[in-house]
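Please, structure for the following, as tokens.
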Amino acid sequence: MMLGFSVFLCLLGLLNSATAGRVCSIPPQLQSATYKPVKNVYEMGDFVVYSCLPGYVSQGSIQAFCLSAGIWNHATLTCRRKRCGFPGPLENGKINQTEINFQSWVTYSCNKGYVLHGANQSMCTDRGTWTGQLPTCGPITCSIPPVPENGKIASDFPKVQNISSYLDLVKYECLPRYVMFGNDTATCTASGNWSDLPECRDVKCNRPTEIENGFISFSPARKYDLGESVTYGCKPTYVLDGLRTSICEKDGEWTPKPTCRAPCRITTKKAVVIYNGRKLSVDKISNHLIQHGDTIAYYCKNKAEKCAYMAETHCVDGNFTVPSCYKEQSSWNIFSTDPSKMQLCANAS
């Protein structure tokens, strides 16, 4: 009995060994491909046929066979992605791409001044065609130019008939008595809208205020229009510093007002000076007053050289300073020579 069972096991092993040599494992996987038929067991002589996935084209042998050694001979099939033709041209636009193979994308954009009509991208399909239709780039247009309140269109230059396109200009002006604020032109922009419009405002100024030590010529209490002016003057002995007139400007304010500068009182009781190009005693100057901006030159003594020189001083809005070099003569000092009677120094002006 034991001998018979041993022989059985030996025969079974030989059978399994012979069968194993005629069976192949699962066929090798090829990139982007499938095979048929799909079976659990492939025996010697069986074969499979490979085919590329949708969107791919095949090149090389498509069959593989199960050989007697239990291995597959290699199929030489390769699958490469289908190519789509160039989707353009896109007139007045650009097509942006990195490749034009299956599953790749292209995007569309328009040149400045044009707007895209249609989808802005397409994909290369498994049929070798692009999704959707090629878009178009149409010119950007703006609606009829708006008119600002209290204004009007001075000139309009559309490129095509009455249709305003990108960068077209319209020029405005204001109705009489109104003032323009902002640019006098508007532009059809890339967004299809007009740039900011100017404003036309009715500018008025309130009656200007008085100035100290001065007055305004006839100027009733009312609103003043743009460009109207008033005239200023000063009280006697005061001098007007600045423009005599003030004008109502577009911001509703007046141009700078002048100032009335005060006269100066001569503080020396007796002195011979040069004033308005004349040599005279200060006693001869009316009320001992000089006006703002006037200049007086005093005689000063150069003791070392025994000569005289001139030192100027000015009246500045009521402020007057006698030159420090001037020494007023005492009526008791009969031996001192008045510098105005001395010879001028060689370098005196």
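The radius of gyration is 54 Å. The longest helix spans residues 2-20.
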